[in-house]
Structure formats: structure tokens, C-alpha cells
Amino acid sequence: MNAVMNVVLIVQTVVVLVVNSDCTISPACTLCWHGFRLATIWLGCLIITVDPGSRKVHHPALSDDGPDYLMTPQAMQALVQTNLNRTISNARIEPVALPLCPSVSLYLISEDYPRGKLEHDEMIAILNDPAYWAFCWASGQVLARYIISHPDTFKGRTVLDFGAGSGVVAVAAAKAGAARVIACDIDPLALDACRANAELNKVEIHLLDDIDRLAEPVDMIIAADVLYDRDNISWLDRLPALAPHVIVADSRFKQVELHGYDVIDRVTATTIPDLDEMKEFNHVKIYELKAG
Prior knowledge:
Strand order of the largest sheet: 5-4-3-6-7-9-8
Structural class: alpha/beta
Shape: globular
């Protein structure tokens, strides 16, 4: 699987070959790359000029008055399970305590996820709707641990989790004592996961479907796994315009230093469940920028 991942992470056009061939590829391998592909689209669509109405997500959890946690925990888990099965029909969701910060639990795809050859229709479903929010990527786990270990940095602050995915770092910020936490993601299924994981951890987070719709000042922006593509590097300049304190965790950007940012931690970790990625993607760095 590593050989396949090396190809899909470098040459995006291999997708066409995979979909139209009989080669064996696991759902996790496909989800790994297509999670990154979707994130590129999701970040890029905020950069290019498009009709804002075309990006608006009509989501029951979005409210000007705060989070809407009217569903029971069982119903929330069932919702996340249903969302996952839209992509992989026989995969299971289960609550998992993160190894590096066991005080945070997430609804994640189970360790026994299907690893065999995918049917054509299921491959197409993954291409169209990758469930990247069903994994805790290495950088997310590492940043969550950092947040939990440094509560004084986050206590009493308004914090925005940019590109929230599962909401792992948003949940960690809420547990660390942030006064208000906003999880921002344009994927409505990711917002479902954020909402379910907030309830699982008994914390309150607010949901935002487009960072351009942010209507309040924030003290901090936190983000994990958004620098894997050089096209996204421009966000390092844009995010400080929205908050005076930015913390970013990433394992895919090879440059040791980022302009204006300091490296404040280095940790080795894996994605949960483990996707058997290339070892270099297990080395996570945390970067920080403070105004002034």
C-alpha cells in the first residue's frame, strides 16, 4: 500500500487509472489521498472568486445563537455512521480515545475497516465524498495533545479551528478552557462529525461553514494538516489577518521554518487508525505566530 500511496500523493492523475483499472487499492489508501484532495478544493474555493451562495451550507447545527445539540448521543453516532456508509458501505464508526491525548475521544472509522479491492461504485463514492473526517490525522492528534498540555494558552480565549475535519483540535481547545470555540469547515459531513465529537466529549463548540462568513473577532486560529500542498501556503499570510495568534500543525510541509512562524514542538505520531503512511509523514511540527 505504501507504493500506491507514494504515487497518489505525488501524481494526482493516477486517480483516473485507478478508477478505470482492476488494480487493488484499499479504502484507507484512497481516503488518505482524497482527503487531501478535498482539502485542497475546500481551501482553494475560499481563495478564488465564486458566488458565495454556491458555497453556503444549509446545516441544522448552524445557528447564530450557538451550537444545536438537540440530538441524543446515540442519534449523533448513528448520523456519523450513516455519513460514513455513504462512502464505504461496510465500515463501522466507533468512539476512540486518542493515544497521545486520551482525554479526547472521537468517532472514527474502526480498525477493521475494509482493506480489500473496492467495487467500482464504492471507488466513485470515495472520489466524490471522501470521509477524511472519519480519521484523526497525525497532525491533529499532535496539536490536540499540545493544546491539552498548555491550557493557559487557550483558557478564556475565542478560538477558531480552521479546516476542522473531525473537530479534534476544536474539542481539545474547549477542554483546555477556551471561552468560545468555532469549528470551521465547508463540508457539512465534517460539521456533523464536529457536532457529534463535541457531544461525545461533553464540550460546546460553534459551527461555521465558511471562514469568509466569520462575523466576530477571534483571539486564536488553530489548524492541522493544511500545508500538505504548496498552493495552501498563502493561508499562512492570510490567517494572521484574522487573529493575532496562529498555531499550525503539519507533517507534510518539508521546510523546517516558515516565514514569521516559530517551530514550538516536534512529535512523531500516526494517523488513527494507522494508514501505514510513509514514515516521513509521521514527523509533525507545530508552528506558532504571534502578533507583535
